[in-house]
C-alpha cells in the first residue's frame, strides 16, 4: 500500500489502522529553526496522524507521543496541543493519550513523534474508492514552514475533514504531505486502476509540499463541487479528474 498508514486485520470485519507523524527543529527551544509555541507543534503533529486515520473512516482509539523534550514545561505544552486537537472534534474524553519525555538529558531543540491507532470496519473503509468521472479537489492550500503560521485560515483541519466525510458523494480523501498534490493524486488513481487527468491550468503548484497536511486531496462526484464550496470555509480547487483508460 502506498498510503501513509498501516492496516492490520483484526478479524473478518475489522482492521487496526496505524499512522504517525514527526517534527524536529520546530518549537520554542534555543536551536529550533522555526520558532513556534510548543502547543502549536503538538497540535499540528497530532493533526497529521489523526487525519491519516480519520480520512479512511476509521475511529481513533489511542494516541502515543514520543517527545524528545522535558515534560515541564515543553512536554506539557505539547500535550496540551495534542489534547486540543482531540477536543476540536469531540474526542478529548474518549481517547487515551500516553507517551514518553526526555528527563535524562537537557535538550536545546524540539523533537516530537505522534502515533495514532484506530479501528475501521471492512465495509466502511475509504481506501481505493475513487470512481471514473470523479473530480479531484484540493481542500486547503499546500503550504510549509512560516507560511502555514501566516495563513492558518487556508489550512485544512480536522473539523473540515469531518465535514467532508459527511457528504455521500465523497469517495476518498488523502491528506497531502511533503510530496505534493500530484504525487498523492497518482497514488489515488493507481489504487483504482484509473487514468489521472491533471489540469494544466491549475492555479496551485501541484508539486509543492503541503507540510503538515495543510491540504486534503478529495475524490468526489462532479456535481458535488458547488455544495462543498458552499459548506466548507476553506479554499477548494479542482486539480483534475479520474477517467477510464
TrEMBL record:
Record-linked InterPro entries: PurM-like_N, PurM-like_N_sf
Domain PurM-like N-terminal: 6-120
Pfam families referenced in this protein's UniProt entry, alphabetically: AIRS (PF00586)
Protein name: PurM-like N-terminal domain-containing protein
Native source species: Iocasia fonsfrigidae
Lineage: Bacteria, Bacillati, Bacillota, Clostridia, Halanaerobiales
Amino acid at each position: 500500500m502506498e498510503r501513509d498508514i498501516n492496516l492490520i486485520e483484526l478479524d473478518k470485519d475489522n482492521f487496526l489502522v496505524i499512522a504517525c507523524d514527526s517534527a524536529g527543529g520546530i518549537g520554542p527551544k534555543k536551536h529550533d529553526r522555526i520558532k513556534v509555541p510548543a502547543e502549536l507543534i503538538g497540535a499540528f503533529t497530532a493533526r497529521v496522524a489523526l487525519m491519516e486515520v480519520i480520512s479512511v473512516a476509521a475511529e481513533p482509539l489511542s494516541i502515543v507521543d514520543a517527545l524528545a523534550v522535558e515534560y515541564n514545561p515543553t512536554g506539557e505544552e505539547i500535550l496540551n496541543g495534542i489534547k486540543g486537537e482531540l477536543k476540536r472534534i469531540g474526542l478529548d474524553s474518549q481517547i487515551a493519550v500516553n507517551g514518553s519525555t526526555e528527563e535524562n538529558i537537557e535538550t536545546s531543540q524540539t523533537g516530537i513523534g505522534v502515533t495514532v491507532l484506530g479501528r475501521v470496519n471492512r465495509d466502511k473503509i475509504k481506501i481505493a474508492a475513487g470512481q471514473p468521472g470523479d473530480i479531484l479537489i484540493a481542500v486547503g492550500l499546500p503550504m510549509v514552514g512560516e507560511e502555514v503560521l501566516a495563513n492558518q485560515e487556508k489550512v485544512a483541519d480536522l473539523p473540515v475533514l469531518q465535514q467532508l466525510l459527511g457528504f455521500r458523494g465523497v469517495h476518498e480523501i488523502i491528506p497531502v504531505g511533503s510530496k505534493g498534490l500530484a504525487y498523492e493524486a497518482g497514488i489515488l488513481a493507481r489504487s483504482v486502476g484509473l487514468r489521472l487527468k491533471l489540469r494544466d491550468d491549475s492555479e496551485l503548484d501541484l508539486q509543492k509540499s503541503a507540510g503538515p497536511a495543510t491540504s486534503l486531496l478529495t475524490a468526489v462526484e462532479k456535481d458535488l463541487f458547488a455544495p462543498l464550496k458552499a459548506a466548507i470555509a476553506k479554499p477548494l480547487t479542482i486539480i483534475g479528474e479520474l477517467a477510464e483508460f
